[in-house]
Each structure stands twice: as structure tokens, then as C-alpha cells.
Automatic annotation (TrEMBL):
One of its GO terms (molecular function) is hydrolase activity. It comes from Streptomyces prunicolor. Signal peptide: none annotated. Keywords: Hydrolase. PANTHER family: HALOACID DEHALOGENASE-LIKE HYDROLASE (HAD) SUPERFAMILY PROTEIN, PTHR46649. Pfam families: Hydrolase. InterPro entries: HAD-like_sf, HAD-SF_hydro_IA, HAD_sf. It comes from the Bacteria. This is HAD-IA family hydrolase.
Amino acid sequence: MNAVLFDFSGTLFRIESTESWLRAVLRETGIALPEPELVEAARALESAGAMPGGAQPEQLPEEFAEMWAIRDESSALHRAAYTGVSRQVPLPDPALHDALYDRHMTPAAWTPYPDTEDVLRTLHERGIGVGVVSNIGWDLRPVFRAHGLDPYVDAYVLSYEHGIQKPDPRLFSVACEALGVDPKDVLMVGDDRRADGGATALGCGVHFVDHRPVTERPDALRPVLELAGRGQRGQGEPRG
């Protein structure tokens, strides 16, 4: 393998819990909410799928279905989709919905998986190109910089910057071109079998991990070092 492409959310980083997300915004805005109401609001927000990088909506309102399907193609669509489903949940101040969206884009809302730094650094030291390919509506580069991981990433390919979402092979093609590598010499690592599996259309290998809390997934990325080192094509089953 000459390069490894990684998904962002659920692969290299994990978003905070919905309750932590809501607590942080309430604290920042100075709005008090009784504990039982806070817990219930967090549960409702999670059920609605209001937090980007979090759970999918349990029941997506029909009026959001079309926008939801293409939400990662632009920053405007991304914000509108997530704040739209968020507003299905009553909160003490309507401005909290936008504040919650803004919170999820901050480095403090994200935690790298325990093996993320070691794997990225080792690949970089071996001279293997590293790219991040994400379906997302905002610039995640500050998250990598804040956590000290930016020096190990050679290219960021973000869906909203290209108007293309995974599994469209064109997004993976952009990443391969940015790294100057043949797709057949590339391994794609992600947690979404449909979205990240789109790389196989170009001939890339794939390796899947499970989207779990950081405390429950200490070393799922480490097999990537062996796969890249041996030049293997990747695996179809998760190593969580």
C-alpha cells in the first residue's frame, strides 16, 4: 500500500455523548435546566438524530428526507438538516439549536480513539500517504490541529468542499489524486460499509472498524499498520 485513506467520525475520532453536548452548551449560554428535563432533552435530541456524528434519527420527519439524503454536499445543507431535526425537540431557548450545531464543530467535542495518533504517526514515518475522506459539512482541520494530528495527514477531502458524498467513487478519486497514488495501491479505512465501501469501485482495498465509544475500542486501527506494511488489500470484517 502506498497510501491509507481514513474516515473521520467513528473511525479516527468519536463525538462526545449527546448529554455532554447539551450540558456544554447550556453551561456556555448560562441557561439552567433542571436535571430531569436536561436528561430527557438529551434523550430526545439523540432520538431525533440531532447531533452530527452521533446516532441516526430513529424516525426522520418526511419533510427532511430529501435534504437529509444530500446533507453532506454543502455546509448550508448540513446545518439546515441538523438544526431542522434538532428543532423538533423543545428547548428553553430556540437559539440553543444553533448553539448546539456550533458546539459540535469545536475540537472539545471530539476525542481521538486511543490508537489514532500512533497509527497515523507510524504510517507517516513509513512514508505512506495519509488522507482523510469525510462526509461532512464543515472544516474538520482545526480538530486535527488541536489534537496534534495534523502533521500526519497529507490530504483532507471533505464532501462539502466538492459537492460529492461517499459512496460516490469520485470523492475517493479526488483523494487518490491529491496523494498522487494509484487507487489499487490504496487502503480505505472506515466504519460505514456503504459509504466507505464505495472506494472498492476504484479498486481500493477496504478495512472496516466499528463505531464504538473510545473506551470500548482501544486498538481497532492497529491492524491497518500490518495491512499497509504487508501490502495487503484490506479486510471486509470489522476488528473492534
